[in-house]
Amino acid sequence: MSAGVVFQYRFVLGFLATGLLLGAVTVMIPLVLAPRGRGADALKTYESGIIPERGAWRQFSLAYYLYALLYLAVAVDVVYLFPVALIFRLSLTWQVVVELVVFVLIMFAAVVYSWRTGAFRWD
User: Which residues fall within 8 angstroms of residue 13, CB to CB, at 6 or more apart?
Assistant: First the structure.
């Protein structure tokens, strides 16, 4: 590799070196500053200052996970609709309208499918 090529990429190499250095520093700081001893109190479950009545490991209903996945799917889809709304204002073409309608119909189909399979029923 010639000196001219390295000189052209000096900023990229500088940012890469800075990123690696900051990553190494953030890994090393807790190793230096963290307390060494771990007593029995460090291993106890902490719940807002209240002593827990039972262990933290217990089974949850599958419905919680279904709701969480449905929420994530809808939230991510809504986040994707914001840039589309901005583009929709700037360039109102049939292609943009069709893409928006297809996207919303896919979201609607997912909600209808979840509803029909009983994912919204709390048993």
Answer: 6
- Which DSSP helix (H) or strand (E) runs through 75? helix 62-90
Secondary element (H or E) of residue 3: helix 3-8
- From CA 24, how far away is CA 19, in angstroms rounded? 9
Contact 117, 70 (CB under 8 A): no
Q: How far is CA 2 from CA 5, 7, 9, 17, 115, in A?
A: 6, 9, 11, 20, 63
Where are the chain's structural domains?
Answer: 3-43, 62-117
The tokens describing 85, both together, are: 């709304």
Tell me: the pLDDT tens digits for 61-82? 777 777 787 888 788 888 888 8
DSSP 79: H
**Whole-model pTM?**
0.44
